[in-house]
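This part of the workshop introduces the protein records we will be handling. To make this concrete, we reproduce a full record directly below.
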Amino acid sequence: MSEIIVITSGKGGVGKTTTTANIGVGLAMRGNRVALIDTDTGLRNLDLLLGLENRIMYDLVDVTSGRVKFNKALVRHKKYDTLYLLPTSQVKDKSAVNPEQLVELCKEMQKDFDFIIIDCPAGIEQGFKTAIAAADCAIVVTMPEISAVRDADKIIGELGRADKENIKLIVNRIRPQMVENGDMLDMEDINEILSIDCIGQVPDDEMVVTATNRGEPVIAMKDSTAGKAYKNIVGRLCGERIPFYKPPKEGFFAKLKKLFGMF
């Protein structure tokens, strides 16, 4: 029986869909059969991040309305042949799919996949309630900013009210220098506020933008720090004990060299 994971966030722009794409690719790279379901109806973007936007014929609303079977709407990834996308509609609104329909769909799909990963709309409206309904596990994505963490706390509360107990955290777009300078929340602050198990700390990395524009998830890029962080996240989801990377503190002489321009 496959595991159903919903990836959610309190606000937009924190990297929720990027996280969905990279975790999906990472699990497929390990040989798992993975289905990604985009439930952000009206604002779909997961297809762009996977480079599949030109291959879509049917969508989630077509499936839940009974127009086609789910396997007809699935789009197979061009490079990772165990990874599939079920895109949603760009023209319908989030009320087009209800929680009961998504639960039924996931039950049907479970026999064919090791992981079903649901990309949830940001916020706590109807789309959120639909996306979380079938999930065994929820991953909350946030950034080390007070507004993003506050919204994540609200999402965690809503998940608790929906009886979702298995909740994980990913902190995205961390800038170590800003954290060191006290201009960005550090992990101790975030853990104290949210009090859930953190499975990923993803550094801010310009290669994410490059990868997104190419439709190639950054996890496949060898020199990307964010890609390495996503690989570690996938490993932790698969039960591996992977320590978090702690950047070495800059020594006195290194700081002195920088001060005098001696690199």
